[in-house]
Write a structure and sequence with these properties.
By secondary structure, the protein is mainly β. Strand 4 and strand 5 form a beta hairpin. The N terminus is likely disordered.
């Protein structure tokens, strides 16, 4: 018995020495490492695999302290910017910045972001629409991606009630609204003053709603090459900049998506909530 006890103590001490000799990863890596890696195959044969797990609330977080993942965009270095709405998802939220490997780089202070799904990156800045529930017009915000602070605002024409956003260039935003039997694709022009403008003749209407839930919620929007990507629950659709060549793609999962991004190399990135999991195209 004595020899067995000595061997047991020796084994534990050796294990502790070995553990201390291993470089300890960052907190975000430990957090992600506790989750499984998953693979999804869409109906167009695109495969996506878990890239990382971003922040999600611990089980004991309730009320206004709770935060829910709402949107995603990426810069040319494949840093990811994730929007989180607070509990009511109508006024306030945060932006979390992650590296291409899923390391948390920065978290913003509390911002006015509305529901939070409308976010896009272009030419060194983030653009985000603060769609405050009950207001007739919304604010488009230009945000410094290093400090995650607002540097400029524009008022969007009240005729537009955008759900999601993608930047075409530094002076032109594309905002999408669900309208009737499909979607309105609106161009919003950003000038030097506080008012954004639009020409109604530039608007295109894409017929056919997507989504596998009754409300056909819009969950994300991105531009990749010459195509627009519009995301809903269970499906996304692509179409060209004239609203033609429409293709529907099933996600083959019942999980709720919360944003889509197209990287500089053309790969698709998609975010899902609850577990808050980020997938990247293989």
């Amino acid at each position: 018995m004595k020899n067995k006890s000595v061997r047991s103590v020796t084994t534990v001490l050796c294990a502790l020495v070995l553990l201390n000799s291993i470089p300890f990863p960052s907190a975000i890596s430990v957090y992600a490492g506790t989750n499984s890696v998953h693979t999804l195959k869409f109906s167009n044969n695109i495969k996506v695999k878990t890239l990382f797990y971003p922040y999600r609330d611990p089980a004991n977080i309730k009320g206004t302290a709770a935060k829910g993942l709402q949107g995603i965009t990426a810069d040319p270095k494949n840093n990811f910017y994730l929007t989180y709405g607070t509990a009511d998802k109508t006024t306030y939220g945060y932006i979390y910045k992650y590296s291409s490997k899923g390391k948390l780089l920065k978290k913003s202070k509390k911002l006015t972001i509305g529901h939070g799904q409308a976010i896009s990156y272009m030419d060194g800045f983030l653009y985000q629409i603060a769609d405050i529930k009950g207001q007739k017009s919304y604010m488009l915000q230009k945000i410094n991606p290093e400090t995650l602070t607002v540097v400029k605002k524009w008022r969007i024409p009240s005729a537009i009630h955008p759900n999601v956003l993608a930047m075409q260039d530094a002076n032109t935003a594309i905002a999408v609204s669900k309208a009737g039997d499909g979607y309105d694709i609106n161009k919003i022009h950003l000038g030097k003053g506080p008012e954004a403008t639009r020409d109604w003749r530039e608007k295109i209407h894409v017929k056919g709603l997507i989504g596998k839930t009754p409300k056909k919620e819009i969950q994300g929007f991105a531009i990749g090459g010459h195509s627009y990507y519009l995301l809903s629950n269970g499906e996304y659709m692509t179409f060209d900049r004239n609203g033609k060549n429409i293709k529907r793609v099933s996600l083959n999962t019942a999980r709720e998506p919360e944003g889509i991004a197209i990287l500089k190399n053309g790969k698709l990135v998609i975010a899902f909530n609850k577990l808050n999991e980020i997938f990247i195209q293989q």
